[in-house]
Amino acid sequence: MKSLIWLTAEEAAKNRGKVLSLYRQLLRSINSPRLQLSYASRLAKKAEVRTIFLFGSEEISKHNVTDLIRTAEYALSQLKQGKIPNNTTQY
């Protein structure tokens, strides 16, 4: 059975591998020497990533899950360039 708004168990299982991969890549990227962060800043950023993924794991809306994955992909691309992702949204 397909749901239009809510995430089904089957759809959640499909996203699981991608989400775990993004989570691991983000945590690894924070350790990059290209980022000019102190040890305490690195730990704080990692805690921030864990918190976002913890609350995201409870999300059941398809659109919100899609947005979370896109945001994680964007943050990862910024980290790989040696930039710290901006936490404010600009419209």
TrEMBL record:
Domain of life where this protein originates: Eukaryota
InterPro entries (UniProt xref): LYRM_2_plant
Start and end residues of each LYR motif containing domain: 12-80
Xref: Pfam families: LYRM_2
Protein name, UniProt field: LYR motif containing domain-containing protein
Species per Swiss-Prot/TrEMBL record: Capsella rubella
